[in-house]
Every structure is written in C-alpha cells, then in structure tokens.
C-alpha cells in the first residue's frame, strides 16, 4: 500500500514581490508548490520538477524559505517559525528528494565585493558569502556611466518604502577584452523586466475606444507585452501583469465591455489604472491572420490560438488576449436582472455605471471599476436607507482589519469587506431587489439581518427594510432607546391632563393651564354659574372626549435605575478551563514574547489554546471549581432566607409628612398643598385662594374639625403657617 504524502498548508506567510513582502497562502503537496496572493487572488504554482535548490535562511523578524528554480527564478517566502525547519526539511526530502540546506549570509557590512550572476539573480558576495541578492525581474532599467552601472527598480504601490535605484562601481580591468561595464549591463538587461519592441506585432487594432484610460488607442499585441498607442500617451503592458479578463454585455444589448485586470497597474504620472476597459459595438466585425506557423502556435500557445480568427471585434480581441496571457475569460453567470440583462444599472461615488453579479464575485464598470471576490465579503445586510421606495442602495464592506462586504438594499447596495472597507452602489431600481436577494442567498453569503427580512409567520420577504445601521453595536443608542421605553411606560399611566380637583392630590398648575378651567381673573366668579345645565353638560362631555384623545408629554424627570449594591459575601462565579490555563501560563507567554502588550497576550494565548489537544487537566479543574461555586451559592441563598426583609413603611411616611392640610371654616373649597407651596409669599397665597373660593360654591361644605385635629400633629412652624391661612379664609368668607 502506497504511503499517503502529507500536505503542508500555511495561511499566514508572506512572499517577496517587487521589493516588499505580500501576504500569501502557501500549499505544499506532492504535485508541487502553490501560492495565492491574498489581496489580488492571483494563483501561481511551481511543479515538483521545477525545483532546483531549496534553502532555509534567516530573514528580518523571522525565518524564510528560499527556492531557486530550473528556469533561474528566485522565490522567497517569509513568516516561518524556527520550529518549522525540521518539518519542512523532512517534507522536501521525502516528497521531492531535495535536501534543504541553511543559507548563510555575510553580515560584515562591507560595500565592496564580487558581483555574480546566477540565472535571473544578481548576488553580491563579500568574503565568498552572499551579502544580498537582487532578483533581476524587479529591475526596470539599467544605465551606464564611466566605471558605473545604475539599476532602476519597479515600485510597489503598497510598500511604505521603495528601493528606487542601486549603483555599482566597476574598476577598469587591466586585461584586454570586453568592457566590464558594458558586459555588466548586458547581463542585467538580458534578465531584467524591461519591455523592448522587437519584431513585428502579432495583431493590430486601430482606433479602439478605451474608457479607462480614456481615449482612442491603437492596440498592438506582441508575444510578451501589449502596447497602447494614443495621440498623447503610450502604455506597455507585460502579459505577466494581466490577472483576469472579463467580457460583459452592455444592458442595451448592442455593446460589450472588455475588462483587463492588471497588477501592477499601468501609470500615467501619479494616476494608476488597475483596469483596462475597452468598449466595442456589437456591429463591428474583424479578421486577423497571425504571422505564425501552425507548429509554432501549438508549441508556444498549446492550441489556445488559431492562425485565422474572424467574427465580431470584441470576440476576436478577447480570444487573442486569452491565448497570449493564458487567462480565462470571465462572463456573467445565470443571473438575469429585472430588465432581462445580466447588468444592474446603479451609481457608485456619484457616477452612473453597471453592476454585474458573477459566479465568484461582483464587478462594477466603469468609473471607477471595482471587482469584489466572494472570499473578500464578510457579511451582507439588507436595510432601509432613504425615504423613497422606487430604488434601493447596495452596500458592500470588506473582511476584519481589514476587505469584507455589507449589502444594504433600498437606495444603496453596501458590501462590507473583510479588510474593513465599504463600497456603496446606489440608485438601484426596486424591481431588482428580489432577484438580487435570491442571488446573494444562492451564493451562501452571510446575511446579517435575515430574520428581519422575512415576515414572522408567513416566511415571505418584507418590502419595508430596516435602517442599514440597525445591527451596528451602538451602546449610546441602545441606552437612549431603553430610556425612551421607560418614559413611554410612565406616560401610559399619567399622560392625560390632570385638572385641579378639591380634596384630591391634583396640581394647582394644571388648573391654571387647563383649557377648560374657568377664568381665574374674574374676582366675582358668578359668570360660570349663569350658564344653563345643558351647556355644562356639553362642556363636560367635550372635556371627557379630549381626555381620551389628547396626551401630553410627562413633565416627570427621567427615572434612573438605581445601581445594584454588590454583596461582598456572594460567591464569585467559577473560571472556565481556558482562564485557569491562562492564569498558569501568563508569565510563560510574557517570557517568550518580551515587551508584549496586554491585548496581544490574549491573542497569543488564544492561538496556543487552540493548538492544545489534551485539555482534560484544566477541564477537570474547571468542573471542580463549578461544584464548589454551586455549593457556596446554596449556603449563601440559605443565609439570605433567615434575614428580615426591609419594609417600605419609612418611604411612605416621609411622603405623608411632606404634605399639610389647609382647614376651611366657612365652607370654601379646600385642597392639599405641598410644603413648598405654603412657604411662598403672602401675595401669591392671596392670588391662589381666589380660584379656590370660586370652586368652593360647587362643592358641598365639609367639617374641618377632623382636619384640624390632624394638623395639630405637625411641626410648630407648619402650625403657625396653617393657622394664619385659616384666619385669612375666615375673614374672606365673612365678607362674602
């Protein structure tokens, strides 16, 4: 039985690309080495027979893998740990029969040595040891001077610092022969990534309309690059920089977009164009005959190109691009919009364009073009974002730190990406909603508020979308909503207008502002009594109706929930197995990672905890701690039962003590008055007594004896004020 070959996968390593380290996902199997760029999604592979030399070397901040191929190309991967060396060495020996040796570099810091060319790599050796290596495919130009050679390098857009140029001084050779400076330049240029137009073009297309960069260009296709020749600018695109090809039909069914994705992008001054977008009319046809023999076509392009190509112009040029660049052409899948076209009309950053749902992503053309892969989308959210219901927006956001996508319908489509970015496509017709929702659901993208989009019992989609930020964690908004609910509950109990009623705990202020109260400025008070009984009855019925319809905002202050007092005797909750393990290994993590912050400790600890296979030791400790906690809680609850509960009598007594009773000897209307009301000036007392007398005529006379007996139990200061008020009322009633 054949032994199964293990597969090694690394998702958090980096690869050297144009002078910087970019994140990749690396997979090593018996078929070869495959690596995928996390940002661009570009996949490259090295066959098992392509490997020549494999080295383990020290890199800045860690260890790396150096792979030299039969074709003379150098690949360098970083981000490995020292513990991975033995595993990789064993894998290369058993799988590829290659011995992985450790590569030593000179650290003397000398700036003079010997320059050696090996394949497409320039090595600068000091004392027979390499000091540094320069991949010549990163060189964009090479110029010479007297005893001097200058190398210029391609710039990486994502790198914070780029190496612009490097100069070598070459002493004059005493031996007769070729010039060493010229020889050095020729060897560099033979492997450098410099585009030189040699030979005839395979095909030429005249005056092709280009949307990005804008203008009309003559497109000349060479075996190794593509040239765009315009009236003002020229662009040369190496075929190795082409990532993807898209052929998209225009919604008017008469034109086609041909989109070429580039990495690195072409430049015009400081402007970068990561996409080349060509627009073709469906009526234009073309015929091309390639200047190559059938054997040469089969040998170089493996049957991807035919000698004679005819048909619509967009079909001809797309077939040639496919054969030269060795890339598949991506077309829209089974999605069909409300208008019958695979494209959805929308806007992005105030520019109108078209959004095309693909089999593995979304692409928007044309200004600016955006391509979003499904593996970049973290979540989709359908929500309301505007008042109009004729269109909706689609929001797309990127995955964590960074790309993931958030999808938000009704005025915009918002995709939330894993890298933290958000792309919003707006002004989409409402008729596209059902089809777009089915598409997102079919592709199994995570919809954040799926429950809100369905009717609770029916299971159908709801056309009323919620706010796009409804699921966002906002503690302040949550607290405001809770307080609003509390106020609404209070308003239900006491939201009606409270009018003054004698002998009831009403407010005098309510009578003054009551729209149905009598005119208190009339000192005589006889105008109200002159009305007939029918008028009084109508007023009473009208007042009852307004009570049921009108509601006023409660003037009560916001109720704040009192903070719960912590009981020091209450047992603390037990720790989980993870936290028990973390407390035991915290110091060890600090020793292994000196200078690590508190937040980084938790990240490192979480990764270590996942790698532990046998967690039985800490799970047993956690179970024991839980049993002790439950036992302690039983004892604590039993001790609470024996304690007497506090009665609320004190609070009620305080409220009663704050109210005094105003006696009336002459039968005038009497009511409850707060202590603050009594303490006001005598002038305010006189003005407030008038409406009291006026209402007293409607109320039956009451004996004030019991109230006087109750008032005798108040404090001395309150008794004096009450007696003075009683005397004033006696004099008033006598005059009447």
Automatic annotation (TrEMBL):
Spell out the PROSITE patterns in the cross-references: HMG_BOX_2
Report the DNA-binding ranges. Answer: 571-637
HMG box domain location is 571-637
Q: Name one Pfam family in it.
A: HMG_box
Where does this protein have compositionally biased stretches of type Acidic residues? 489-501, 713-736
Q: Please list the residue ranges that the record marks as compositionally biased, kind Basic residues.
A: 537-550
Region annotation Disordered: where it falls in the sequence: 482-579, 634-736
Name of the molecule in the record:
FACT complex subunit SSRP1
